[in-house]
Prior knowledge:
- By secondary structure, the protein is α/β, with parallel strands linked by helices.
- It is about 45% helix and about 15% strand.
- It is built from 9 helices and 10 strands.
- An 8-stranded parallel sheet has the order 8-7-6-5-4-3-10-9. It has a two-stranded antiparallel sheet with strand order 1-2.
- A hairpin with a 2-residue loop joins strand 1 and strand 2.
- The longest helix has 19 residues, at about 150-170.
- It is globular.
- About 45% of the residues are buried.
Amino acid sequence: xxxxxxxxxxxxxxxxxxxxxxxxxxxxxxxxxxxxxxxxxxxxxxxxxxxxxxxxxxxxxxxxxxxxxxxxxxxxxxxxxxxxxxxxxxxxxxxxxxxxxxxxxxxxxxxxxxxxxxxxxxxxxxxxxxxxxxxxxxxxxxxxxxxxxxxxxxxxxxxxxxxxxxxxxxxxxxxxxxxxxxxxxxxxxxxxxxxxxxxxxxxxxxxxxxxxxxxxxxxxxxxxxxxxxxxxxxxxxxxxxxxxxxxxxxxxxxxxxxxxxxxxxxxxxxx
Length: 271
C-alpha cells in the first residue's frame, strides 16, 4: 500500500490511523481541536504515541450530523493540514466525501482521501484523487440499508467503488477498503461486518477497520461515548487477528500497545 511517499507492508503488520476532528460537533471529540494550533498539538501527540497516519475531518458524519458548505469545511481543514505538513513528517488523510474539499486538502498537502461514500457520493471525487496521485480509502455505505445477503452485498458494493477508482486512473497499490462499521447497517450487521471483515481480502486489496467509540460498542457495553475505549481496543485486537492493515482510532497510545502485544503473540505462534 502506497500513501504519498510512504509504503505500508501488506501482511503481518497493522498500522494505526489517528483521528483528528477539527469540527465543533464531532460525536466523540467535537470542539476539542477546532483551532489550528490545538490541532497541531494533538497531531504531534498522536505521532509520539505511535500513529502511522493522521485522518483529518472538517465535517462530522455522526448520525443526524449538520451538513456544512464546502468552503466552511475547506477553511477548517486546510490551515491544519498546512501546519502539520510543515511540522511533522507523516502521511495525512482528508476525511471528506466532497470533491472540492478533497482537492483543496490535497493541494494543501494531504496524501489520501478517506471517502465515506466510496467515491459514489460525488462523481468528481475519483478524478480529483487520480489527478493528485492520491491514495483512497473506500468505505462501504449505501443510501438504503436493506440486504438479502449482507456480507456478499457489502463486498459487491465495494467492488463498484474499486471499479470507479481504477477507471479514474487510481493505482491499485493506492486503494484501501473499509467495511463501514456504523454506516447503513443495523447493530447486528455492524457486528457481522466485523466478524467477517477478513473476507474483504478476497477483493484483492488491504482494508481498514474504523470502530473507535462507535454506537455498536456503546450498545454492546451500554456505555456513553467517553467510556468506550476498552471496547475500541477489543476491535483493534480483532482487526490484527483478521489481517487488517489499519485501524482508525481516537486514542492512539493504548491501541498501539494492544496491537503490538497481539502481533508479538501471533508472531510467536508462527515460529
